[in-house]
Amino acid sequence: ERAMGCLRWYEQYVHLLRRLESGRTPLVVDLFCGAGGSSEGVRRMGGASLGVDNTEQPHFVARFGGEWFVLSDALDRERLRGLVRKFKPIGVLASPPCEGSSTATFAGKPSSQPVLIAEVREMLAELDLPFVIENVLGARSEMSHAVVVRGQMFGLQTERPRLLEAGGGLVL
User: Fold this and answer.
1) Do 44 and 16 form a contact (C-beta atoms < 8 A)?
2) How far is Cα 101 from Cα 105, in angstroms, rounded to an integer?
3) Which of 1, 31, 48, 73 has the most CB atoms less than 10 A away?
4) C-beta of residue 81 within 8 angstroms of C-beta of residue 68
């Protein structure tokens, strides 16, 4: 019930944006899209997403269609600028790999994966578009201005808190 109320609230913004854009559905670029969890939230509010990931994402393609997926390194700045020029998104969602910040251990050892949050933030700031970066609680030291979002806030029965950090003029 809470999640549906939240979606109805944001559907109003999507409706307004559509009217301001002469009927064009607001689009966001979803970097490191994976199977499309963030894009699904955008779709449920009435928007559209263009997913970008460096590996094939058959679940994303099955959900949203192949024309809405780009196989590319999400950190390729020139490619991202080209996608922004072509698709004219209203913003960018980015969920860089969280293994480097995860508090979970891998076979008893901390992950050796790089933490990409600072690089992603710098890249997104160059675009001059609103953006949100999402990651795990272990990334708190990298995301000092982030808010914590929990599934229970939306009536979900899950405990997978996430940090959300906004930029490009967007404030959470």
Assistant:
1) no
2) 10
3) 31
4) no
Judged by DSSP in three states, 107 sits in: coil
Note the pLDDT tens digit of each residue in 63-103: 999 999 999 999 999 999 999 999 999 999 999 987 655 55
- Give CA–CA dist 30/50, Å, rounded: 6
Tens-digit pLDDT profile for residues 3-55: 778 778 888 888 888 888 888 899 999 999 999 999 998 998 899 999 999 99
Which value, in Å, is the radius of gyration of the alpha carbons in the chain?
16
In sequence order, what DSSP letters do the residues of 109-144 get, joined into one string?
B---PPP-HHHHHHHHHHHTS-EEEEEEGGGTTT-T
Kindly tell me the burial class for residue 69, based on how many C-beta atoms sit within 10 Å of its own C-beta (0-12, 13-18, 19 or more): buried
CA 4, CA 8: separation in Å to the nearest integer? Answer: 6
Select, from the ranges 2-11, 111-120, 130-139, the one with the highest average predicted confidence (pLDDT): 130-139
Residue 106 has pLDDT above 70, yes or no: no
Nearest 5°: the CA angle 85, 86, 89 is 75
